[in-house]
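Researcher: Good morning. I'm working through a list of sequences from a screen, and I'd like to move beyond sequence-only analysis. For each chain I'm collecting a predicted structure so we can compare shapes side by side. This is the next one on the list. No need for commentary yet; just the structure.
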Amino acid sequence: MIERIWYQTSPVWVKPLEIPLAIASYCYRFGLYLDQSKKKSRVRSLPRPVLSVGNLTVGGTGKTPVVCFLAEQAQALGKNVAILSRGYGTQAQEPLMVPSQSNHWEQFGDEPTMLASSLPGCQVWVGRDRYALGIKAIETNNEIDLFLLDDGFQHRQLARDVDLVLLDGGRGLGNHRVLPWGPLREPEAALQRADHLAVVFKSGGQDSSRPSSDSDPNSFEVEIGPKSWSYLGEGWRRSLAELPLNKPVHLISGIGSPESFEQTVRSCGMEIQNHTVFPDHHPFKPADIEPLIRESDQEECSIVTTEKDAIRLRDLPVVWTESNRPIMIQIGLFTGDGADRLKDIVKSVFKNSDSGETKISGGRTSS
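Model: Good morning. Structure tokens for this chain:
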């Protein structure tokens, strides 16, 4: 029901049900104003450039593959990168560096664990205080050249050189209302403080080129989609051309946008028999998965899951056999104008940092 209110035109009979949501939304906006005012009054700057990647809406926007791409581009320039993340669900109070091959996603969060395993040579840090994370990262490695602030648009107490905001190209801003009446984390006017707006589209497994928007020079489109796959627990990636298509598939997901996962799977040529959807970041238990294994065996289906869900599935004490070992689809950016714009943003961060200017909320200040 809530998704329908956010992203579809509500029928007349639903309108009275929106009244409590509207009241809660105005209360949320007032609390948000107080919180953001407090954060703006105590902005701190790190001694290295900061590129923030964030969202205006809740739900999946393709942020993780974009962060991976930005980190890889900086590394290709010979730069050392550290990613600063809150780590959804982690109880960490002190700064923690995520090992590159960690089996403890509960300690660090599923997305930071996935980033650490996908980006050799890149530090990934989790904790509440991103400034403290950055200082600790520099103490650990003084050669760090760039901080990527993961999900940082609302984390305004940390200064940044560039604010990159991602928007789901399929869903947009929904009904343009703030939580819980709509999907916005803060009012739409907040986009005015973004330096760049990347509209992310999910597509099939083909590199393509979308032209950038001519109406706003700071807005552009990016395409993400399936790039490779592997079986759960494998240490290498396989070509999509080798993807087994001889059986229908049973999807298992606990992500912010399960419908986009279905779109991805269909674009790979797979026939979806069933899709078991769990809440985003769901901590899978054997009791969740064992019935699905039996069901998929009875249906003669392959199990397919996302790369993020695989982080939470791989160490479960359940019996995966060759016939039901999950297929994991890996998502990445496609070449095109959008990818080129992201490369230029990375280069511009280092160029602009030489001027000693660092962006804060609504303006710039000398570092």
